[in-house]
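Task card 7
Instruction: Convert sequence to structure tokens.
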Amino acid sequence: MHALETPQTWAKTHFGRVEMSDVRRVARVVTIAEAMATHPGHSLPQMFENPYEVKAAYHFCNLEEATPDRLQAGHRSLVKQCLCQAGTYLLLEDTSELAWQDCAPRAGLGALGANCDRYQGVHLHSVLAVRWTGVPAAGAWRRPEVEIIGLCDQQYYIRQPRPEGEPKRNSRVRKSRDRESQLWAQATQRIGSKIADSAVRWVRVCDRGADIYEHLQVCQRAGQGFVIRASQDRTLLAAGTTQNNERLLATAQASPALGHFALGHFALELRARPQQPARTAELAVSATRVALRAPQRPGCSPGRYPPIQCSAIRVWEIAAPAGVEPLGLNHWHGCCYVTKRWRHLRQHTPVWCSMPLAGSSKSSTRPSRKALKSGLGVQRLQLKTAQRLFAAIALLSVVALRLLDLREHLRVAPDQPAEKSGLEALQLEVLRLQSKRAIKTVQDVALALGRLGGHLNRKGDGAPGWQVLWRGMQQLQTIVEGVHLASRLKQEFG
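Output:
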């Protein structure tokens, strides 16, 4: 994502190849994206200096050709190019709700949850690609750094009310029409198959909502691996037969810990939470090969579809402190599916271990949702139609990844020289002068930016988060602009 590029350069890279009917509209996309990246969290009127630019932004979002797929086409093309290079890529997938509460309804939005009269919104189904950069060091584990690539796909789903006269609990009728659960399989089809290169690996990382037979099936057909949190206690088939054998959760529970592997036991650092102090949990891992029986579908005879061959992974805590509920104790939170055998997945242990223990794939996609909702204030947008909202969300979704990439960039190599942080020489010198401290490493740069953004750097505060780092980066850019203006004033007035 190159978060430390100037907003103008970044906007041209990701949105300069949008296909529009008029070249001036392409320039408008770049201008809006640049403004969003320069002023994250601001409203559209606050992003521009003159009323004409504001009016032009509103007009653009109302164009019929300003669809999310078209606006993100250039960005997704860059992502697809990266995914074809040698390496292991995790495709983090989740559905989040974007809701608006208004007195007047917004055309094109649907109901959310039980409060249909109060909230309108859309279900945003996103697939975020990151590059797996390496294996964590031995000992206590913290999430390894990843390289954020970008959005592979994004779908906007409007929930429709149940047709009048349709029985409320008729599964056969419900499965005969379009459903929200189909978003997972549709995402696979929209992303496409992995290239036939053994040096390239794609692994889908999904929450329990993706525990759908058709989704697992299309992933395998597309050459994509998957790590999916188990939601259903599926029936297993005995090896080499079509006879029912055991249930998934009981089988995972009975599987012994892989103590003979280097990663069969490891420690996981848990941050402090309300009424829960920080601690280190010792975890055990088990893996067993299973065959998931295909479910019966309306109009299909049993056994028509083949079983899903995969591995069931369970993670649980050993010797939890007194009075503390062990991690992974609940079966529903301690099992997931993977597509390869254990010996091929040892290096990815932290990925699927973090799923059941830290909130599944949501723990991986939560920062991007938070960046979109809290950091950029997407739910504060005052656009009155779904078409305008979706156009703005499509741009803001990519901007949100720019915020996250800043944090990851500063985490990759904290002990390297400060010059490796990605800051320009002038930015780095201004940061040193402003902080009045020696800045020798990348970690020093992160802490200095954090102080600019409001981080107090107390013992229990932890490292600066992406929001604090981004505020610090914006503050630094403002100071650097002041330095440039002072230099011009000196040249003009001596």
